[in-house]
Amino acid sequence: MLSVGAESFSSSLLSRNVKIKIFKTIILPVVLYGCETRSLTLREERRPRVLKNRVLRRILGPKRDEITEDRRKLHNEELIDLYSSPNIIWLRKSRRMRWEGRVARMGGRRCSYMACVGIPEGKRPLGRPGHR
Questions:
Q1: CB 60, CB 74: distance < 8 Å
Q2: Tens digit of each residue's pLDDT (9 = 90 or more) over 45-86
Q3: Residue 77 lies in domain
Q4: CA-CA distance, 104 to 97, in Å (whole number)?
Q5: Which of 1, 3, 9, 83 has the fewest CB atoms within 10 Å, i.e. the most exposed one?
Q6: Angle between helices 42-60 and 88-105 (to 10 degrees)
């Protein structure tokens, strides 16, 4: 049984196209899960891009220099040229904007709308919460 771990991306048993399909259908949805409702810091925003580049480097393999015949890692610009897909940060932001559009069209009594707009209902009790 083949695993979908890091080992399968460097395996020669799977073709490059199959590895990219695995990346698109299994890994990207996991990375993008819940991105509509969660805001990220700049550091957290960088992590999915780093993961994507790392997986793509492993899938595409090293590049051989024509002059020196040495192998080297692919640069980010080369990854973008070889794997033409939308930027993962752009995907996250577009999904978030789509979700905010849905919430804006919801009625004012829905929990999602109140949580997104920030309209608290009622008052919280004073003091520290009690132990039940």
A1: yes
A2: 888 888 888 888 888 877 777 777 788 788 888 887 887 777
A3: 6-117
A4: 10
A5: 1
A6: 130
Question: Would 47 be classed as within a structural domain?
Answer: yes
Q: Rounded distance, CA 23 to CA 14, Å?
A: 12
Report yes or no on 68 lying in a domain. Answer: yes
Radius of gyration from C-alpha coordinates of the chain: 22
Does a structural domain hold residue 127?
A: no
Question: DSSP letter string over 85-123?
Answer: ---HHHHHHHHHHHHHHHHHHS-TTSHHHHHHHT---S-
**How many domains does the chain contain in total?**
1
pTM for the model: 0.64
Tokens of 110: 């829905």
Cβ-contact 59, 15 below 8 angstroms: no
